[in-house]
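Design job #97: recover the sequence.
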């Protein structure tokens, strides 16, 4: 232990004394007034008598006792509030008690948690600063840069009396902003113009001395002398914010953004890891499709994030980028782009892109046809890609990360292959809508007809999920009817012990669908094969409905085509027949490659999960869940550099993520999307909500609003599910419900495909359905007209 006067502290000791003592010493040596004081280096309880002796010999009376741990008030982490400090300490007994508490706080649970999370590579020693207590008339803080807005102005906050009430948040402060030239002050309150100016002048001087942005604590004495009590780096300038990862490349205030389609694939807020992997892959797939169609000359002409971007971690398509297809491909237009993505025409500004010459647009149409007609080859290629895609595990985190990084190109390629089948499916359905719309009175009626044409398509991946799960559930019930009363753990044990048809059906389900999940492209969401408790819960849900496969109604697509083409010209008949069959095949192909893309995502989920375990065992991350709140690139930096700032940022992002999940957006914006606030609304009996008909039929029933898996588990047989979106993970619950209403969706979405196969009436694109409709409301849904009617008679 050693004791040194702050004003004469040797610079060679600065690395030992902690940030608080170091900052005060630097201020004092450069002519900025600080209270008289000394620092106890490496304080220990058995040497307290020496500290008290120094205190008495140097004539100290009432003092402030402040921690100055060597990890405190550093350039990366402030450790603010982790250790104890005491004010107004007068007399030996009070000083002794304060010193003991201050020293013991080094090993408190609060400080230990902070150290293990952020400071595990630093040495922890408790130093203590003891200074004359200032009888303050005013006190406060001064930031040399606004820590919230990041504006390069001085921000001064002040209260009457001691500044502790300001730091603790127990007093309302006066606030002032001062420009860098210190000739413009905004704000008003308890301080005079001269005091504000004096604080800013000294703060500017301190900033120049330290050559970093500072958080300064100050006080004005009863005789109007300004003293500084602390100088520490501002450590939150690089802190995570709710809009930290927002899009920054959109071109103008007239850019059009939409949550349609992309908001169904990944609704709500997504994690930073997903933004930098699966979402980046979706964006790259779209960009490469636009290049293949001639919209852009080269891939380098497109910027990352120009097609799929995020605001507050919510995903949007930038329609303005995609509108370029309308100016470069003959037959395409702004309206067709909107119809294929949003399912409706939008009231938005004209496309900003210059129309290409006709010959160029004809040539690009040929290129686009070549792209979408390669869908069969794409299906073979994606199967081969899945066979060879292998992320090799390694106990060395750097080598393991490199193996993941080397496979990012395969994830991107899987997305492009999926877009080839998806674009073909969308093109055929859009063309069919364009032709048939001339023969029906309303767009909704046309969509209803198209929905009927897309029923009963054999072998679709998303449809087989529930079918295969029913097969598992039925075989369990036939072998052991008591299994319906099992817990999840008991059911899993039963399946694992079985050596017959139950195990065979279960293994077949896992092989084909084990990689699927709710919000499948979200890296944080485990697939069914890696969340067996959740899977058992789903199987039990199906078992409780009896697990009976409903018989399909008689359906002959050729007869259906004859019905809708009756009395039409020969060429029109042939065209409609071709488009119907292509649309049906397109649905199958699209679901096939979507499943493979999700399988690729699941390989990454498993790899990141294993990597997170290795990082925790190597004390690089405090817990495995934090990996999802770093981008892929940041994980590499963390492993290579052991950068504790990234751990801090991951903690902050995880906390902010709960706020981001609560944010709601409208489906279309011109310019930067702004979150919306909805007031609670109760609809009167007879109110009709309009949407888009996707699966035919009409039912009355009790609504249940489903916003989470926990909500879905409450579904009762015969209820109508009302959700923001359909998700492949909801598939088991389709055996429980008798109808479905969603806020987003399209005729080609997997939820629509499954609903049609199981004859569930479905209406999509019902704005704010989950807010207007309440659980317990009796409603009518008409999957032919696209109308949802509130019947009233709320059920308790």
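Job complete. Output follows.
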């Amino acid at each position: 232990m050693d004791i040194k006067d702050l004003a004469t502290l040797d610079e060679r000791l600065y690395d030992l004394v902690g940030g608080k003592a170091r900052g005060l010493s630097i201020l004092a040596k450069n002519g900025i007034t600080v209270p008289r004081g000394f620092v106890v280096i490496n304080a220990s309880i058995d040497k307290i008598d020496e500290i008290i002796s120094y205190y008495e010999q140097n004539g100290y009376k009432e003092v402030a006792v402040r921690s100055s741990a060597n990890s405190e008030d550093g350039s990366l982490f402030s450790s603010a509030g982790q250790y104890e400090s005491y004010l107004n300490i007068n007399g030996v007994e009070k000083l002794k008690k304060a010193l003991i508490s201050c020293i013991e706080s080094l090993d408190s649970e609060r400080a230990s948690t902070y150290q293990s999370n952020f400071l595990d590579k630093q040495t922890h020693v408790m130093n203590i600063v003891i200074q004359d207590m200032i009888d303050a008339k005013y006190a406060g803080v001064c930031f040399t840069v606004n820590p919230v807005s990041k504006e390069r102005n001085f921000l001064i906050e002040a209260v009457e009396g001691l500044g502790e009430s300001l730091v603790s948040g127990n007093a309302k402060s006066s606030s002032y902003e001062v420009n860098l030239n210190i000739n413009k002050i905004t704000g008003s309150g308890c301080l005079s113009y001269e005091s504000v100016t004096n604080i800013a002048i000294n703060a500017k001087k301190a900033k120049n001395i330290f050559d970093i942005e500072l958080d300064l604590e100050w006080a004005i004495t009863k005789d109007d002398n300004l003293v500084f009590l602390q100088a520490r780096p501002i450590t939150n300038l690089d802190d995570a914010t709710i809009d930290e990862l927002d899009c920054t490349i959109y071109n103008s205030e007239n850019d059009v953004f939409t949550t349609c389609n992309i908001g169904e694939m990944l609704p709500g807020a997504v994690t930073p890891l997903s933004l930098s992997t699966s979402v980046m892959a979706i964006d790259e797939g779209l960009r490469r499709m636009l290049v293949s169609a001639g919209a852009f000359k080269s891939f380098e002409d497109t910027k990352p994030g120009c097609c799929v971007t995020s605001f507050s971690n919510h995903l949007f398509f930038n329609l303005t980028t995609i509108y370029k297809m309308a100016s470069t491909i003959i037959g395409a237009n702004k309206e067709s782009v909107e119809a294929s993505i949003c399912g409706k025409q939008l009231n938005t500004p004209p496309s900003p892109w210059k129309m290409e010459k006709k010959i160029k647009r004809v040539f690009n149409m040929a290129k686009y046809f070549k792209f979408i007609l390669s869908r069969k080859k794409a299906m073979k290629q994606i199967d081969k890609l899945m066979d060879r895609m292998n992320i090799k595990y390694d106990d060395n985190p750097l080598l393991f990360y490199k193996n993941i990084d080397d496979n990012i190109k395969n994830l991107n390629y899987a997305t492009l292959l999926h877009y080839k089948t998806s674009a073909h499916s969308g093109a055929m359905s859009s063309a069919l809508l364009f032709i048939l719309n001339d023969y029906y009175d309303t767009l909704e009626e046309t969509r209803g007809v198209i929905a009927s044409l897309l029923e009963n398509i054999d072998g679709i991946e998303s449809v087989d999920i529930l079918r295969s799960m029913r097969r598992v559930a039925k075989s369990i019930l036939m072998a052991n009817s008591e299994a319906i009363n099992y817990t999840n753990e008991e059911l899993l044990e039963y399946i694992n012990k079985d050596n017959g048809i139950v195990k065979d059906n279960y293994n077949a389900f896992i092989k084909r669908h084990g990689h699927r999940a709710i919000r499948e492209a979200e890296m944080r969401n485990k697939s069914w094969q890696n969340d067996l408790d959740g899977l058992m819960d789903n199987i039990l849900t199906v078992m409780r409905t009896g697990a009976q496969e409903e018989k399909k109604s008689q359906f002959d697509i050729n007869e259906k085509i004859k019905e809708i083409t009756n009395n039409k010209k020969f060429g029109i008949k042939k065209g409609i027949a071709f488009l119907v069959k292509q649309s049906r095949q397109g649905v199958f192909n699209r679901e096939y490659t979507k499943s493979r893309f999700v399988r690729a995502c699941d390989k990454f989920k498993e790899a990141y999960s294993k990597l997170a375990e290795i990082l925790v065992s190597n004390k690089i991350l405090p817990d495995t869940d934090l990996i999802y709140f770093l981008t892929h690139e940041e994980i590499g930096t963390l492993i290579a550099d052991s950068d504790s700032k990234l751990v801090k940022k991951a903690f902050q992002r995880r906390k902010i993520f709960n706020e981001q999940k609560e944010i709601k957006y409208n489906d279309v914006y011109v310019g930067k999307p702004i979150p919306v606030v909805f007031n609670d609304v109760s609809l009167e009996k007879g109110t009709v909500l309009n949407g888009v008909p996707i699966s035919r039929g009409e039912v009355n029933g009790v609504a249940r609003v489903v916003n989470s898996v926990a909500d879905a588990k409450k579904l009762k047989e015969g209820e109508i599910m009302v959700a923001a979106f359909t998700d492949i993970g909801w598939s088991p619950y389709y055996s429980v419900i008798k109808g479905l209403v969603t806020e987003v969706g399209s005729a080609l979405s997997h939820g629509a495909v499954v609903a049609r196969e199981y004859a569930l009436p479905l209406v999509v694109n019902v704005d704010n359905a989950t807010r207007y409709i309440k659980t317990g409301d009796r409603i009518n849904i008409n999957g032919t007209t696209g109308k949802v009617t509130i019947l009233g008679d709320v059920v308790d």
